[in-house]
Each structure stands twice: as C-alpha cells, then as structure tokens.
Amino acid sequence: MADLAPREQERSALDALLAPRSIAVLGASSDTAKIGGVPIALLKKAGFRGDIIPVNPKSDTIQGLAAVPTLSAAGRPVDLAVISLPAKLVEGAVDDCIAAGVRAIVIFSAGLGEIDEAGKALEARIAARCRAAGVRLVGPNALGVFSPLTATFATFSTALHATWPEPGVIAIASQSGAVGSYCYAMLADRGIGISHFAATGNEADVTVADLIAHFSHDPATSVIVAYVEGIKDGPAFVAALKTARAAGKPVVVMKVGRSDLGAEAVASHTGALAGAARGADAVMAAAGAYAATSMDDLVDAAEAAATGVFARGRRVGVITLSGGVGVLMADLAANEGLTFPPLPDKAQAAVKAIVPFASGRNPVDVTAQVITDITRVADIAEIAIDGGGFDTVILFLAHMARNLGVMDQLIPALAALRRRHPDVPFIVCARHTPEVRDRFRAEGFLVNDEPRRAVRLAGLLAELGRAPAPAGEVPADAVVRLPSGSLDEVAARQILAAAGIAFPPSATVRTAQEAGAAAAHMGGAVALKIISPDIAHKSDVGGVRLDVAGAEAVETAAREMAEEVARKAPDARQDGFLVTPMLTGGVECVIGSVTDPVFGPLVMLGLGGVLVEVLRDVVFRPAPVSPETAEEMIGALKASALLLESVRGRPAIDRDALVATIVRVSQIAAANRDAIAEMEINPYLALPGGGYALDALIVPHARPVEP
Amino acid sequence: MADLAPREQERSALDALLAPRSIAVLGASSDTAKIGGVPIALLKKAGFRGDIIPVNPKSDTIQGLAAVPTLSAAGRPVDLAVISLPAKLVEGAVDDCIAAGVRAIVIFSAGLGEIDEAGKALEARIAARCRAAGVRLVGPNALGVFSPLTATFATFSTALHATWPEPGVIAIASQSGAVGSYCYAMLADRGIGISHFAATGNEADVTVADLIAHFSHDPATSVIVAYVEGIKDGPAFVAALKTARAAGKPVVVMKVGRSDLGAEAVASHTGALAGAARGADAVMAAAGAYAATSMDDLVDAAEAAATGVFARGRRVGVITLSGGVGVLMADLAANEGLTFPPLPDKAQAAVKAIVPFASGRNPVDVTAQVITDITRVADIAEIAIDGGGFDTVILFLAHMARNLGVMDQLIPALAALRRRHPDVPFIVCARHTPEVRDRFRAEGFLVNDEPRRAVRLAGLLAELGRAPAPAGEVPADAVVRLPSGSLDEVAARQILAAAGIAFPPSATVRTAQEAGAAAAHMGGAVALKIISPDIAHKSDVGGVRLDVAGAEAVETAAREMAEEVARKAPDARQDGFLVTPMLTGGVECVIGSVTDPVFGPLVMLGLGGVLVEVLRDVVFRPAPVSPETAEEMIGALKASALLLESVRGRPAIDRDALVATIVRVSQIAAANRDAIAEMEINPYLALPGGGYALDALIVPHARPVEP
Predict the structure, then answer these.
(1) What is the pLDDT of residue A395?
(2) Size of the A and B interface in Cβ pairs below 8 Å
C-alpha cells in the first residue's frame, strides 16, 4: 500500500472541493446574473462561513466584498478557487492558483477540450500541472459543485434560482451540468435533499468515478447518483463502484449513449469516449450498481435507495382502495419480474371478516367502503403483512392522502405497523399533499402518486436488494498458447478443447473423398465445413453444409463446397474439410468474448440463430465470471425460459454444463486478454445431458498488447 | 334503419344523464360527508341551475333544500335520479323512478352484482325494467357522473374535495370510479379540464362503450378516455370505437386484466368478464384507438390527443439546451420506433453561425451558452423546423421555463414559429411553472417536464396520427364445408388448399412401405407425419420426423413412428402417414385464427419456433383483415426484421405471398365463424419466392353455434 499517502492527499483535496474553508472566484462579477457573479451571490445567500475572495483586477468591491486584483494579492490561504474567465485566460489562472497554494480548482470556462485538439492539449497541460502540485481540478466546462451541508456554492447552476437545496443523504456526480441539476431539481420537487452536487464537465482531472469513490467515504452520503456520457478509465470506474458497494452505499447510474444514434450524438457533442454502453452495463451489473434508463427512473431509484430498506425478493403484496388499480398493478408486475402471491386462506378470511366485500387474495381490494372507518385499512394491512410473507408492500390510497383528517388517523396506525416490520419496504401510492408525503416519509414509507411507478419502485427495491454474485477467478490452466498469424477453425477447436471446452468428435481431412470416408466411419448425418485461416464467417461463402448423410453424398457436397468457396472467396486458402457428426435437438447458444476498449474482456451469452441476429438477446459480463454470475447471465436473457425450463415436452438442458462453459470461456478470455481480442463458440449446443461447442473462432489482437 | 328512433331516444336519455334539467337524490343526507349528502353539496357548490330534489322520508329540509318523502311526492318532472340507498331498497327505488317518469338513473349502492348471483339477478331485473321504460341506468356500484359544462354532479367522488373540475375537451368513461377519478385528478393537476366524467360500475345498463358512442356525438368533447376491465359486448365496443373514429375523436383506452395475474384479480373483484385482452388489443388496433398501459400513459395520451395536432410520421427533431439530455432522448427513441434524422448540412451551418459551439446535427445541442440571448433558441428552432422536415419537434429548455423574464422573450418568438407550422406537433420539455405551462399550451405547444416522457409523447403523437388500415372483406369463396366430426391433418390440408392456401406436394399413404416408396418418388429428404383425427399436436407424441432421406430410412422411420405414437397415444386412431418434401431455408411463421368469446374470430401471425413458444411474439387482429392490415401485423412483430429484411445474406422473403396467406386465413376464419373455432398453419414457411403451409390444423366448434 505504498500509494496510500497520495490517495489520502487526493481525498483531502476533494474535501477542499466540497467542504472548503475559503473560496476565491477568479473573474468575479458584481452582476449576480453573470456566470462570474453567481457563486458569490449563492455563497452569501447560503451564509458560507469561510472566506469569500472575489478576484477581479478592475474592482475593489464585488457584491459588497473586498476584491483583490490577483489571487496572490489575497495574502491568505485558499482552499478552493473558481475560474470564470475566457478560455484564453484559463491556463495563466491555473498557474496563479497553484502558485497561491490552492488545493482544488473549479473551471466554469467553456471553449477548451470540447471544441478542438488545441483545447484538448491545453486541458492535458493544466491537468498535469495540477496533478504535480497535488491540486484537484473540476472541469473545464463544468457547472461546478455545491453542498447544502457546507454552504459551498462553486457553481452557476440556474436550478438554484428556483429551488434552494435542502440537506439530504443523496450525492450527485454528473458529467453534464444540465442533467445533474435537472436530477437535483426533480429530487427537490419531491422534497428530497442532497448531501453534495458535482458536475465535472470535460473531466480534465476529477471524474465522476473519482467522486463516486469520494462519496463512498463521506459520512453524510448514503446514496450516490451518477450520470456518465463517456468513461475513459474503465478500471477506475469499476473500482469506484466496488468501493461504494463495500461501503454499503447504493450507486444509481445513468449512462447515456446506448443507442447507435445516442453514441453518435455523444461523439458530436463532447470530447468523451462513447459507445461503451455494453461494457458499462456489464460492469455495473457485476458491481451491483443500478443502471437507470431515464431521468424519472434515476430519481425513483435514488429515492428508493435513500430509504435504506431493500426488498429481499420479488414477492409483492398490494392493498388497494381500487380494485381496478390493483388489476393494473398486477398487469404491470411481469414487466418488473415481480410476483403477487396470494394471501394464505386464513389471512384472506380475516380480511373478509373486517370488510365483507373485500377481495382478499392479492391484490387485496379493500374497496371504497373502508372510507367510513379508515383505521380498517391499517388492520387489513397488518393481516396482509403479518400473513403474506411479502418482500415489498404497496398500499394504494387513491385520493385519500389529500384528506388530512383521515390521514391523522391512518398514518399513526400504519407507522406502528411499519415499526414492527422495519425490513420490509412499504410503498404508499396516492394523490397526496407535500405535508402528507413528508409525514409518511418520516415514518419510513416510500411515497409516490402513480401506480405504474409504484410497481416500478417495487422492482427497483428488489434490484437494489440483490447482492452481486461473487467475482470470478482466473486459474493458471486457462492460459493458452496461440500460434502466430490468424487461426482457422481447426486450430481454434484444438486450443479451446485443450483448455477444457467440450467438442464432439471430429475429423480433419484434406480431400472430398476423405470427407466421404470420414462421414461413413462416423455413421449418420454429418456437418461438413471448409477449413481456411482466411474465412471467419464460413456460411457466408458456402463453406458450411449441414446434415449430409452417406459417403457419396458427403463427397459430392465437399467437392461442390470447395468450388463455391473458391468462387466466392477466391483469395482464401483452402486447407481441407472438417467433418463432425450432426447433432440436433437442444438449444443453440452463442458463447463468446470481446475486448471492450474501456473495460477489457467481456464474456457474452446469447441464444442462437434469430434470437441473436434479430432480437439481440445477449448479455455481457466482465470476464472472468463465477458460476453464480453465469447463472445470472442465463436468467437475464429475454428468452431464458428456453434454457431454464422444459419447453413443449423437450427435457430441460444441462445447465451445469452450460454454466461451466460460460465460466471457462470467461477465464480463457481473461487469462489471455493480451493475446485474444475475440472468441466465439457459435453455436454451443446445450443438450439435456451435457453440451457441445459446434464451432470455434478465435481472433487474436492485431498487434501484441503492451503488458 | 328501423331502429333509428330508439337509438335517438337512448341518446337523449344519456343527455338527461349528463345535462339534466333536474336531479333527485334518493337517500339524500344532510351530512355533506355522507355518500347521500355529497351530490347535493356538489350541485350547490357548482351552482346547478335546475331543480335539486332531495328525497328522504325522515327530513323536510336537506342542506337547506326542501326535501320530499318520496319521488312521486315531488310532483315535478325529474330528468335524473341518483339512488344512494342500501342494496335491499334499490329495486323499489328504481320502480319509483320509472313510475315518476325519470329519464336516467345513477345507482351508487354497492352489494349487488359484484357480490353474488342474487345480486346479478336483481341487476338484470332492474336493467330490463329500465330498458322497457326507455330509462338509462348507470351502475349499480357506480361512482356516477359529473360535468363542469352543465354543473351536473351525480357522484360521490372524493377527488372533487381536493380538485374542482375545469371545463375542457376530454370526456372520461370508466368502469372503475377510482381509476376514472384518479385519471381526472391527474389531468387536473396538469391544468387540463374535462367535458364529462362517467363511472359505470357494474354496468347493468350503460356501458363504457355506450358512453364512447355518446361522447362521439358530443360537440363539447374532442377526446375520449376510457377505462375498461371486462367487455361483455364486443361488437358494441367495436362499433363505439368506429363511431368515435368516424367523428374524428381520438379514443385512448386502458384495458386492464392483460396478465394472467391481472385476469385473476379481475375475476375476483368484479362481475365483469375478463381475459379478453388479446381480443381487445386487436380490435383497438384495428379501430385506431390507442391502448394505454398505465395511468401516466393514459393521461399523456389524452393530453397529446387534446392538442388535435398529430404527427405524420416518426421523424423527430430535438433542440436541446443540454447535450446530455439530447443523447438520452436519442437513446430512448428506438423504444418508440422514432428516428432522429440529421439536419441538412446547410441548416447545420446556419445553426453554427448563430451558436458556434452548437452541435447542429440532431439533437441540435444549442448548449447553455445560448442563455445569454434566449431569442437565439427561437432562431435555431426556426432553422431546424424549416430545414429538417420533422414530423414532431421537441425543445428541451432545462430550468429556463421557471424564469419568467426569459420566457417573456422566448414564448412570443416560438409562438410565431408555431403558427407558421401549425401541423407539426411541438413538445416543450422543461421544468416550468403552471403559468409558463399554460402560456405555452395556449399557443399550441405540448408541455411536460421529463425527457423520457417527452420522447414517449412524440411516439404517442405518431400513434395518434396513424390512420387505421382499411377493413378486410369476406369473399363468397372463403366459405368452406367441414366434414362432421374432428378433422385430421390431411382433411385440414385439403380444405385449406381448396380455399387457396399453398401447400407443397404431398403423398398420403397407409403403410410404412408405401411411405418409403413415396419418398423415393419425391426424391431428396422428406418430412414424415402420422395421420390421426385424434392428435392435435403430433410432435408431442412422436408423430413427426423431419429430414429423412432414402426409401429404406423413411420406411424404418415410419414403422418406428407408428410404434411410438401407439405407445404415447394408445387411444388415437392411426390412418397412415403423410409424406412431404423437406423444405428448408426461409422463415417459419405461424398463421392461425382463434374465436375470441367477446370479439369473435381473430387472425394471428407469429414467428415460428421459440419466438412463438417462449417470447410469444405474436400479433392478433379481428378477422377479416385487408392486405394493409396484414402488412401492419408483420411490422408489429418484435422480430419483424426477420420478415422485412435480408438477414445475414439470406434474401428477403416473399412478403406478398405471406400477406396473401394471412388475408386468406382471416377470410376463412370470418366466413366460417360458426363452424371453425380455431385454425393453425404451423409452420408457414415464408421463402424468397413464395411460401408454403407445412402443416394444417382446423378445430371445429364443439357444438354448432346458433346463427
């Protein structure tokens, strides 16, 4: 742990960013509407207790504070400097800050790395100088940071005009200032405060990953919300997620640039790297971070995470004043992978004893009749929760949560129940007033006002409650030796077979006649493939014939194949034929690996044929994976039922063999990450008793990768 | 049109319901919090201009109004009577109403048809009596009706305590009072008024379908929102949707009970028929109604529909103050089937001339820099809209719509642009104030505050703008003759082939030896199937062998098959074997028909194999369908790319042949609706040059259906 000291230093520099004792603003303005005027106005409004030092060579006084012409003229130590100057003045200002002993810098200025190569070079220079000086730098092109806990406002966010931040347990780290502050404001609209806010802009130094790691150690923060466009340093991002996990702090992340369209827009609008959504999704899933897909999803997840009470499973109990809403929720349950198990008979009878017209299964429809004595809702909720064994409970109160008189009776009754079941998340869905919402929230309820989102919250709570599977390992025997040059299928089969992947018996022959003889020897129908180091997709050039039977037919097929391949791929070498027995039945999968430019080797599982090609029903995880993760990958496929169940009389496949193959491919990918760029077994035929790789492809890295 | 007069009478009775000149309340209470007290309190509050007649034998005065002991004692004509009495008094009260010449009745009382058979019988009795008297009846177990246009309040909705209705163009018809009033309140929270509200409860007489038809003729209503749990009369529902369509009034429907779980909950909580989600979805799609899946979706669709300006296509232009939100929207576009085509180069250059840092493609990121002169946003929007040829435009303004000074500049500039493009829907997404929202809305903008929902709205506008395909026809030659008794595959093939469905050549043989000879005669590999009138799913009992080649192999296979089938289905008759040439390549589909108990014959298209079995990738439409509808069905499949595109070098399939087969199956299903319960071609092999039915199943109705 030789690097502990610098890390501690970095952490303390980030403390200077979010809890500074003094703040200087370079380019401070007397106009509170101007970008250089906003932070001073905000600091004054917030009652910041430390020094505020406006720096402006043209004024002695800025917003009533004594200004200095240069930072060095301040003659006092400065923790945090904000640079709000034209782009061309930024480099000199950074040098001034370093010279003055500043510990952290926020640069608002735009027009640098997001514009052109010269801007990128300048960013790299100032970042290097800051690093050498032990100074942390946020930006440039950053909306900056603020914290209601420390009254720090090194930002020009317009969101703060409309909404003043209340203290809370959620920290926000966002590459985009607009998205971050929108998220902040959506939380504020729900009456939910934050601990810290930081928007990193061009990320010349401080990244969202740095902030995730920092917030993991922050006692005031219990949930971390992150927004990322491009991730440049994959391992740092993964390490940050693991740090947060180890600290018991849920991370909810929105990573944009998932679609091709989205990726294109990223590339054209920031200097960040994009297109790594597959890798980012994979590492988030592996690290137990929640990947949000929209702003409302992100904010819902943050709100759910902030309760600190997560679901142990996916069994949901619903108590509703509206049968219709109960049915609607039941309709939506499948989307979230939730089940609504029925109440035990005894509990159903007890519910009916209280409200005879109630439907007591689940959803428990207490009907609008309970309105005449609202405490009966609490009685029924008690029966349902005590008897149902639910992982999450949803209570739909329709309009009743706008009736304060009724709530005065109901909230204390439900709160007592809540205290008896502190480990079961409890969602109240109702049209409410802010006051009623806050009262419910103070008692540990999660409150919302839309049935679909209530069901979504139950799904989120189950996601948040799921511990990530254990990490995989890389055993020494997963290292393989690749021959130099490209590999044909035969070589790939040999390498993977030697590494423990199961292939059916096969024959490698030179001539069409030998192919016929080999087929006769095997008996039954065979698959016939061309052998060539130059052809990756054999079927595209007529290099695969399936289900050919009999020596003569196989010989003819081989001869025709050689001609067709020669015609379609005239430059490809032909090294003979591969003859394998025709296996049928089972489920065709694709198991492969790719090397993500940011996150390294990923292992992939997909379902074969059209499911991969058209529906892209595939799942990635960072390699290596544990058997538990491989199981999780199987379950994450849309068509996982094919692998998990016996479909239409066909016996279920051998899941252990499939899991072992996924694990092994992931180990080979990880152990040979410097040699193997891509690997693919397509198809892997999963059978009731075992499974076989029926094809093999290994693509080495174009050049050796530096260790 | 002999029934025109009664229909007119019905319509006028519904006018008495929603625009009565006088209202009596049976069971009127002096307590304004009691169900019988609420409508009188609401009518007084609303300033209802007609007579309010409390009926209560125990009081002379109710809430300051003179009460009568019985309805007949009123001595005045009464348009609408509200019955708020215990269940056991309802029947007598209805008789009193009829005797007094009431034209419409709303029954609040619960404890009737939703409870037991006796309640159902009572409901049927009173409904019949009302019908005979030309009186329309809402309920029982109904939350009732209200209308801000006519100050009519025949309801006990608690939603009205918190939110008073403003007049608007949206009419709400809901089986569930809670869902309907929740929808009403969600609209009201957005500042959107309604024309009428009606919750129908047990629907002894007036149904949601009746109300859809009624609102179609209401000049004050331009959008109809409907919530249905079970639909008892399919043709009436379809007719109502068509009436609304013909009147140019969009209908947005939430039909719950889609999931098995949901259907179970419906069955246990109302007396309505359920489980018809497939049929309901099919008829809604065919009639151009929008099927919402959640409350927010329903309300979003209603709000979008109320603008009256729909998208002509799916090309969306986005102008955004936040690049990140632009990327997020691009990520979400695919979910909605939207595209974000790039701006033409000239328009991109013009955008950059205004804001040099802008990214001008699409999303057009105007960056936060534009904040210094907001009218530049309008200039850029003008360039984008004039140059982009978009079907819908989204403008993301982040927090700026809370800044009234900025909006005073921007709204007039955008409004002028809006007036020049009145046919292009324009969505403003921003955190806003109610005032800013209303100002934008008054200029024809659709306003919301969450990026995912803004993209969803663009999708909704495209859905709402799509005209339904023309209806199908039933030609006389689609009528087939079924033999008596059950049909085996050979008979089904003959019937369908005679009706114009293409099958490959086949041989029907008695013995295994004949099967071998037939295969030899065909040449190549064959498929071999058992013939039996008693076996619907042959592969489940070993009755199918594919890809067998050679006379000897086929004979052996046939012999083994006969033994296996005899073992697995010992009671099934065996009538020999069907031998067909083995066709490969192409795409396997399933084309079939079912008879929906509510909506009649439906035609189904699915993708074969695992896609049908595991992913349930199927689409239904009411039979018969037009070729245009069949095309639409193909496009509606999740894996439609398989049928629409050339996948991995395989040429695209013959879509005309597939369309013709879907149309023909739908015609046969419709023409023989009284004879055929189900039909299935599984697989239909869609090939590049044509397509073939490879199997056929016809299931006659168990008993002849009365004409």
Answers:
(1) 97
(2) 268
